[in-house]
């Protein structure tokens, strides 16, 4: 297991890089409100974000360390990070839930006419009430609020070795749990029981928590990949798929594994072969200088050569502090791949009506060939009793 | 275990109640973007919300059933709900990620000059990119976008018996897991291992998943209540606290339990007594006609009578599809309590510097006395070896 947390120097480097990008973009401050964005610059790691009650703010000024503007309930934990300027209020406070404290902080750090960047683009959310955001803008009438999505994407999409080690650890944990699926899944086991026991295996193998588990089971394939489990027992002829995002030290893995209850049907074997080869093609194409679209195209070519079976959509995505991140492996995403990007390869086939098969692996872009972070799925579908 | 899901009639009733409140508020449509809001009107239950990539929309018109405007990856699951009008697009689509489809839908259902309500107030988040929200407003230049927080609060804060049964089930699951803490926690066990094993117990006892676990351990009390676990081993004299939000069928419990490693110190025993009595006072005050502030005041009076030990802040909150909901048990929240409200009672004491004790129980307001949903904590701190 890698050690936990990152050094103050790591956070200082991230902050300096952000400030370089901010200078190029003409931004006087960043305003961050989401869990991963705040954690990226501070190391503030808590499951308390599950409570939607309180807003949390981090201001990254043009120079110097970030300033936390947070509910007092988080002060003790924030004091353990490298952040020294911590401004708190007693939340919830319906009349003024940190807005005036935040406005004062932004006004002082960015100036009354400052350009304040916040994530407004794809895959981002402003995690504060919309009415409070309007109040903030009224309190800083001469400030300009601008989209800073590109600043954050450019920083976060390339992982440090310490970050990669955490994702690799999450992948290894899931790999050990997947290897133990025969202990918990056989003909007659209700799918909901498999889901429950698989989460227990992930924890036993070292996951801190299990934010995501989906999957499905059905004769020769499954109907969709986002449903919760039902009580239907597994039956011979089913394909079982489990897809997990388990977390280690705040970083996700995201990959799936398929199992056949007894020998698979002929068209399932064919689909498995195609998806295995598609993933191989994706891995081979995953080199610096290629684009996200090149990986999509490499996988799609294998799928198309096998007939018109593609399930469409994107065939993978970024991975890190979030279960899914930019870029997207689609035909149109021209993001250039650079070493340190962690990606999923996720080709899917529609075998028949309501019958899908999805493969997924996690890789990191390296100089030369990509490195697998998930233990490679076997070429042949593993069989369960 | 109660059955899962709700009947189409339940959702139709919720929709009709929303439409009555919308009519009073002069709203022609509701626009919902968050997991609990969309699930409340549809039954769309999936952990796929963990992926921040795609936005999801539900439009509740002034009359008739809601209309889903969602990524096509969710269509199969949405088709299993009572929703019949499902409009999809292939997301992610950076150029237009559902915005024009949503604008067309809202324009048709609310009219070009319609008043569109969305949650903008306390404890709400708009779960779509801010830039897309701006595009939506530009596409409907004559529509008015207004705060609908009160409409949703008024509906969701009073739970049906079917909802209460789910929260009660989650509470019972956690109660069985808490009863088994002596199996997993003793002097020498690292706190991180206790957290891992406790999540496994919750799953084994029937939780679908465990979105929240926090806690702490320290000599005679703990320093804060939102930190993740560290590797420090439990030691004699520690107080261990575990606070969980486990989920059954999409509904949370939220309560904690305290344990003493060996006999507790005298001031810990005193604090335990005060908090037990404060919780009793909160239960006794929890009747229809009282306000959230009355419950706060009843608990605070016990704490104040024992000296100036209060940790301050709110002393409880609503509970349901979210770990924390409105109202807040604070001195200023005048929300009247009505039968069907599910609340936490959560008094806290500062025993000394960096040493807290927090109690928590879950109750539902009934005609007459409130009903405990969590198995009542024992008066004396249970001891671990």
| Structural class label of chain A | alpha+beta
Low-confidence stretches of chain A: none
The largest pleated sheet of chain A is described as:
6 strands, mixed
Compute the average pLDDT of chain A.
96
Q: How many strands in all of chain A?
A: 18
User: Under CATH, the topology of the largest domain in chain A is which?
Assistant: Creatine Amidinohydrolase
Q: What is the overall shape of chain A?
A: elongated
Strand order of the largest sheet of chain A: 4-3-2-1-5-6
Terminal CA distance of chain A reads: 33 Å
Q: Percentage of helical residues of chain A?
A: 25-40%
Q: Tell me which protein chains meet in the greatest interface and how many residues each side has.
A: A-B, 71 and 71 residues
Oligomeric nature of the chains: homodimer
Q: If classified by CATH, what would the architecture of the largest domain in chain A be?
A: Alpha-Beta Complex
Count of separate DSSP helical elements of chain A: 11
- Based on CA atoms alone, the radius of gyration of chain A comes out at 23 Å
Provide the succession of SSEs of chain A. HEHEEHEHEHEHHHHEEEEHHEEEEEEEE
CATH class of the largest domain in chain A: Alpha Beta
CATH superfamily of the largest domain in chain A: Creatinase/methionine aminopeptidase superfamily
Q: Strand share of the residues of chain A?
A: 15-25%
Number of separate structural domains of chain A: 2
């Amino acid at each position: 297991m890698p050690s936990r947390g990152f050094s103050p120097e790591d956070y200082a480097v991230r902050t300096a890089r952000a400030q370089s990008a901010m200078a190029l973009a003409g931004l006087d401050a960043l305003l961050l409100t989401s869990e991963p964005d705040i954690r990226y610059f501070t190391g503030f790691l808590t499951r308390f974000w599950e409570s939607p009650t309180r807003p949390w703010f981090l201001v990254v000024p043009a120079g110097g360390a970030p300033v936390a503007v947070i509910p007092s309930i988080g002060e003790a934990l924030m004091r353990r990070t490298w952040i020294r300027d911590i401004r708190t209020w007693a939340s919830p406070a319906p009349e003024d839930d940190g807005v005036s404290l935040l406005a004062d902080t932004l006004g002082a750090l960015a100036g009354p006419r400052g350009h304040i960047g916040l994530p407004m683009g794809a895959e981002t959310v402003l995690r504060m009430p919309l009415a409070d955001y309007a109040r903030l803008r009224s309190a800083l009438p001469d400030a300009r609020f601008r989209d800073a999505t590109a600043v954050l994407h450019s920083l976060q999409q390339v992982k440090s070795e310490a970050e990669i080690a955490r994702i690799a650890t999450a992948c290894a944990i899931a790999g050990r749990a997947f290897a133990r699926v025969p202990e918990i899944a056989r003909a007659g086991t209700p799918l909901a029981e498999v889901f429950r026991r698989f989460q227990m295996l992930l924890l036993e193998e070292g996951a801190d928590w299990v934010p995501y588990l989906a999957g499905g089971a059905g004769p020769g394939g499954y109907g969709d990949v986002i449903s919760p489990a039902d009580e239907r027992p597994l039956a011979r002829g089913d394909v079982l798929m489990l897809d997990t995002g388990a977390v280690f030290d705040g970083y996700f893995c995201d990959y799936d594994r398929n199992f056949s209850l007894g020998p698979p049907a002929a068209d399932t074997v064919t689909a498995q072969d195609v998806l295995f080869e598609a993933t191989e093609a994706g891995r081979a194409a995953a080199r610096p200088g290629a684009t996200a679209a090149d990986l999509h195209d490499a996988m799609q070519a294998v799928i198309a050569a096998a007939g018109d079976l593609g399930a469409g959509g994107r065939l993978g995505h970024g991975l890190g502090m979030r279960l899914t991140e930019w870029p997207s492996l689609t035909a149109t995403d021209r993001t250039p791949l650079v070493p340190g990007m962690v990606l999923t390869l996720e080709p899917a086939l529609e075998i028949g009506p309501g019958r899908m098969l999805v493969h997924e692996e996690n890789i990191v872009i390296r100089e030369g060939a990509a490195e697998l972070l998930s233990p490679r799925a076997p070429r042949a579908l593993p069989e369960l009793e």
